[in-house]
Each structure stands twice: as structure tokens, then as C-alpha cells.
Amino acid sequence: MKKLFVLTMIFFAGFQLDVFSQQLCDFPNVEIIAELTTGIWAEEISWSIYNDSDELIAGPFSGFEDNSTYFHAFCLEQGCYYALLVDSYGDGWQGGSITFNLLESISGTVVGSSAIIDLPNDSSCGILECMAGTGAPYYATISADLYGEELSWEIVDSEGTQVAGPYGNFGEYITGEESYESFCLTPDCYTVLLYDSYGDGWQGAELTIEDSSGVIVGSGLVPSTPGDFFSFPLPLIEGCPVAGCMNIEAFNYNSSANVDDGSCMRRSDNVTLVSNWTDSSLPNNGFGGAYNDVEGLEVGGIEYAVIGSTLGTHIIDISSYDGEAIEVAFLPGADGGSFVTHRDYHIDGTLLFAVCDQGSSSLQIFDLSDLPATITTVYDSNEFCITAHNVFVDNDSDLLYLCSTSSVGNNSSVKVLDVSTPNSPVEFTDLTPWVNYCHDIYVENDTAWINSGGAGLYVMHIDETPSVIGNLDDYPYQGGNHSGWWIPEDNVYILADETHGSPLKVIDTSDLSDLQVVSILSSEVDPLSIPHNMMMRDGLVFVSYYHDGLQVFDVSTPEDPKRIAWFDTYIENSHAGFAGAWGVHSALPSGRILISDIINGLFVLEIEAEEIVVCPLSPLEWNGLIVESDGYYSSEVPDAIWGTDIELIFAMMNSDVCSTCPGDFDNNGSIGVSDLTIILANIGCTLECEVDLDGNNSTTVGDLLAWLSLFGSNC
After folding, report:
1. pLDDT, tens digit, 9 for 90 and up, residues 304-328
2. 689, 691, 694: which is closest to 706 by C-alpha?
């Protein structure tokens, strides 16, 4: 390629195009005229021209005014060029556009932060060949955050032949700057190869490839793990084989894959998805989603979920068993918008207590007893708080606890209200003199467990003269003491620190003056996982575990807790920042579990039924349940254990499963001739066999030989 240079350039603003009717360039140089029309925020606009070696040829042009027209004219030697259009703020050109007088007026604008327009004026230009129909142009953007000099990449076709690149060449990319490449590709199955010369990954840099319409067709980076190489497919023809996980329920589902490579990782274990509800019209907050806390209740035999969003409170009918969740009501917050990240709820009977931690908010109390027909606003006022981080109601005392409140002239760590008359709350006490900060609180039997961030855990007795009766300010894996749940009958408190890599703690509460961590438990997904909120039921703790979705632990043996089930609501799983499962509710009569995901909305889940083979106490009874006596019988026992179902498989009384005397089929206390008659009559059975001594689910000669070894025995 010849060295390209600008021969002449003229810049005008506010003139008609015919000012350039006189030829400026001598053959074979080409005259280029650019017409720029600005919209609003024109001061953010700039543009430049580069050759195909990424050398700056003209520009950058900037300093434009709103709603104006500008003309730029200059001469170029024949060759391959591209125009780089930039918006410094990153929100596009806001009505601005640019047009060039090449190839029937090439035009473009900026939607995000930048765009590329090809300006070919040479028959040998590859991009021109694309436009002639032998291929299609593609544009790559690479942002080198750190150590840009270590980056390079190329593209190979289905035969392994290099068709684009190598780019970067380990030194060409500059740290902190974006670089752009353009190339022409015909339909094929391509692979993009990425390299890092040091072997510690691309350190935040990312390569994005777009087609001429601005659609992203591929992107990737070298992970920050040992190694110097990574690749991703670039299938530019329908039917191109792309290997990956094709199970949509899998943890690592690949939407581009059309060949399953066997790499699928389960999205769940012992949990079934019933339904998922979202509202795409809601504005997103700073976490990239719209949702926050969740609660649940039953009214008139119908179960409902209550989920908070940036705008207010949504009431969702989740009673359907066909996978449909239906919004039946919306309650606007006192304030709402994209600035809202945190709403919190507590339900006492059919009363819903709601607070918000942003904006000009209030304490809201709603009566849900007439769902779905009507919802009554019982109370909505900022008398006691403008904002509050959390709300909790002690059902035994009708005391409401507000954590980290802001109010006119009176901020409080924990403000306690008497809500025995819900439409007229009165202040009962304020715990600020004892606790400087409260992130969350759990209260039962006038005992308050206050999660106080870096200050640890406080236990207080609540009456007219509150007092601190326990404190834990130094414990293993300590982080930001966030939330917890008390099980008084088991003398156990489960504590969550909202800190990357900090596991849950199981605390022995038998002596409140000497609280001790007896065990820890974690999601087992990633060392950087973060627990958030939790709820207990029947010896199980259900945890909304941010990036790791729902995690369920059996803490019936506090010294040896076990993870028994999980469901991932947020399959991206980067574990950076805060995303995924926010709130959890596990107290619905059906045993269904509710999860609110910041980005993905409401999930309704069920713990999968556990199959247990049992023996009836008599031919017609098992633990008080009337069952059939002949053959196997399956029955669901609702809410029997753990708030879920157990599938009971009832065996026959005279089967080897239930018999205390194998081989005594007539139950007369001895193994004799009458039993031989029974086994001979069953030889050949292959399903639900009455006689099966060798455990192979059939009655064969093997069972006869086993029986003969027992012949003559007494039980």
C-alpha cells in the first residue's frame, strides 16, 4: 500500500454544497466532501479519517454547534480508508449525521460511543470488494484497559487458514485507548483467536465484532487465568457448527451453540422452576435491574408473591400450576424511579409493611385481606421515616422495627413503633443509644437480633427499658454483618456477612452472653460468592445468594450443616459486584419458595419431592395414614417435611423390604412348605414382585436358591 497523504483540505460551515463545484484535486487523487449535520450536544461530536493501516489521515474534527451544518472537503490518493465517528459522552449523536460523496453517498451516525464508516476509493480495496458482493464488511473494536502491548488476535476460517490479522502484534495497542480494525469475510465458520503474551489474561480488555448494521456477531477476551490463548466462534453462515451447552436450564447455556458438546452444568439440584415473572417496562437501577425484596402470603386459598421494584410494589398471583404468574395489583411507592435500589417488606397476617431506602419515601401499610379484588392503604406517611433500610414486625408484641431511618431532624439506627393500631402507629422506643448502626434485624419473643455491619451482632431485650443481652463482634470470616435468622427452639442463629467470600455462620445461642460460631456453610459455587437474605423453615435455611441464586442448607444438626438444594437465577455468574438473587421467602403453605432476582424478576420454585420406601405399620396404615394393602402404592404427603412433598412408596407387608423374617411369606413365624408354594407361584415375576430375596426386582431361580438356604428356620 502506498503512503497516503492529504493534499488539500477545506473546512466550511453554513454553506451550500455547490461551493465545491470547482475541482480541488488533480487526477488520480479523489475529492471527498463530507456533510455533517448536528443535533443537540454537538460539543460531544468529533470525527476523523484513517487509512487501512490505522494511520490518521484527516482530523480529528470537533468544536461543532447544535443544529448546524458543516462541510469538509479534502483530497486523498486512491486507497482504503475509514471514518471514525465519536461521541465523547457515549449516548450517540442525538440527531446528528454525516454523509460522504463516495459510492452513492455513504452516510452514518453514532448510536453509542463510536461508529465506523468505510470510505473505499480504490478497486483493490478489500472493503470495496465486500460492497461489490463478494463478501461483507465487519468491524472490530478493542479497548485496551491494562497492558495493551500484550494483546493480539486473528481470525481463521473452517480450514484453519488465516483470513484476517494478525492484529495488535503484541505492542501496537495502547493502554487506555480504543483501536479499530475492519475486514471483509465471506460466509464460513470462523474462529477468532485471542492472545496474551504475558499469560495473565486481557485485564479488562475486550474485542467486539460488528456487522455493517451495527449488530454484534461475536465478542470475547482472554480470561484472567493462567494461559495465553482463548478463542470464540464467529459463525457467519446458517448451520455453521458451534459447539457448546444447548440445555437452556443449564448453568453454562450457550445460546449460539447448535452442537451439544456435553459441557452442560446443572442450573439446579433438587429444585424445580414453577414460574418466572418480569416486567420489561420497569426502569433499571444502579445494579442493572429493577427488582429488590420479596414476600409471600395466602389469601382465600390463593398464594401471592409481593415483589418490590424501582417504581413500587407488585402483587403476583402464583397459585397456578401451569407455569404462569400473573400480576394482579401494583402499589406505587411514595417515590420511585431508576434511583431506587432497595425496598423492604414484612407481612404480618394480611398486613403488608413497606419501606424504601431512597428518595422522598415513607412507611406504607397495606391491607391485603381482600385480594385480588381490592387493596386498602392503611397508612402512608413519612412521620417516622423518610427512608428506611429494613422493616420487621414482631408478631408477638405488635412492635415494628425500622432499621437505619432518615427523618426530619431525627435519624435513627433502630426506631421501634407500636402498630397494634395499624392506621395510627406510635413510637415505642429508639435503640440508637445502644446500637449505632442497623443493617437488618430479626425479632422474636421480645428478643432482637441486630446485624450491625462492621460492629458485628447485637442481641437486645426489648421492653420499655431496652438492654443489650449479647454481643458478637469478633468471629471467623467476619465481614459486613448483614442479616440473620434465629431458631430459638434449637438455640441457633444463622448469620450472613454481605462480603465476597464470607460464608454463612451457624451460631450457638444457648448462652447469649457467650455466642459461639459452631460451623460455617457456603454456596460451594465460587470462593467469591456473597450471601444476602435468608429465611428458615423446619430445620432448613433458604438463602438468596446473589450470583448463586437460591441455596438451601439443612442445619438441623448445627455442628454439621449440609447443602441439600440450589437453583441458579442468574446464570452469568461473574461474581463481580452485586447481581442475582436479592430476597427469599419460604413460608408459603404450599412449600413453594420465592426468589427475587435483581435483573430477572420473580422466581417461583419447588423443592423436588423425595422418594422414600416405607413399610406400613399394618396392611392399611402408615403413621396414621390409611393406605392400600396390596401391591405398591404411591402417595404425596403435602408439607410433611421441609415445607415440601415426600413421595412415599408403600411396600407390601410380606415383601422382603418390610419383612423382619425374609422367606416367611405367610407370616406364621417359620420358613416351611407353605412358603415354598408361594415362591414357586411367583417364579417369573418381573414387576412389583411379592417375592424378591436377592434384590433384583424380580422373582427367579436365584430367589428360590436363597429361600432354600433358609428352609426350616424359625423367626
Report:
1. 999 999 999 999 999 986 778 999 9
2. 694
199 phi-psi bin (left φ>0, alpha ψ -120 to 50, beta other):
left
pLDDT greater than 70 at residue 225: no
pLDDT of residue 134: 60
Per-residue pLDDT at 368: 98
Q: Could you give the 3-state DSSP secondary structure of residue 258?
A: coil
Q: Residue 569's Cα: distance from chain center in Å? A: 5
Q: Does the pLDDT value for residue 622 go beyond 70?
A: no
- DSSP three-state, residue 251: coil
DSSP 432: T
Asked if the peptide bond before residue 60 counts as cis, ω within 30 degrees of 0, the response is yes
What's the grid cell of residue 210?
Answer: 460488528
* C-alpha closest to that of 199 among 219, 176, 225, 173: 225
Q: What percent of the chain has pLDDT over 70?
A: 81
Burial (Cβ within 10 Å: 0-12, 13-18, ≥19) of residue 551: buried
The angle formed by the CA atoms of residues 419, 422 and 426, to the nearest 5 degrees, is: 45
Distances (CA, A) of 416 to 352, 388, 392, 424, 443: 17, 12, 10, 14, 11
DSSP category for residue 362: -
Do you know the residue count of the chain?
715
d(CA 241, CA 603): 33
Q: Torsions phi, psi of 385, nearest 5?
A: -160, 140
**Global pTM value:** 0.56
Q: What 8-state DSSP symbol labels residue 488?
A: G
Sign of CA dihedral 142, 148, 149, 155: negative
Q: Give the three-state DSSP class for 677.
A: helix
For residue 539, the one-letter residue type is: G
Nearest CA among 441, 318, 455 for reference residue 390? 441
Closest alpha carbon to 590 in 537, 633, 649:
537
- Helix-then-strand count for the chain, H and E: 3, 53
Domains, the chain, ordered by start: 1-134 (no CATH), 609-653 (no CATH), 659-715 (1.10.1330.10)
Return contacts of 315-322, CB within 8 angstroms, 24+ apart.
315/368, 315/371, 315/372, 315/375, 316/277, 316/602, 317/372, 318/274, 318/275, 318/592, 318/594, 318/602, 318/604, 320/275, 321/274
The secondary structure of 277-340, three-state, reads ECCCCCCCCCCCCCEEEEEEEEECCEEEEEEEECCEEEEEECCCCCCCCEEEEEEECCCCCCCC
**For residue 127, what is its C-alpha cell?**
472493503
Confidence band of 620 (pLDDT split at 50, 70, 90): very low
Residue type, position 24, single letter: L
* SS3 label, residue 18: helix
- Residue 150: phi and psi, rounded to 5, are -95, 0
Helix 701-708 to helix 673-682 angle (10° resolution) is 170
3-state secondary structure of 43: helix
First to last CA, the chain: 99
Residues sharing a CB contact under 8 Å with residue 381, sequence separation 6 or more, in sequence order:
362, 363
Q: Is 591 left (phi over 0), alpha (psi -120 to 50) or beta?
A: left
Q: How far apart are CA 212 and CA 138, in angstroms?
A: 6
- Residue 127 CA to residue 103 CA, distance in Å, equals 12
Residue 575 sits at the vertex; the CA angle it makes with 572 and 577, to the nearest 5 degrees, is 110
Helix (H, G, I), strand (E, B) or coil at 426: strand
User: 533, 582 in Cβ contact below 8 A?
Assistant: yes
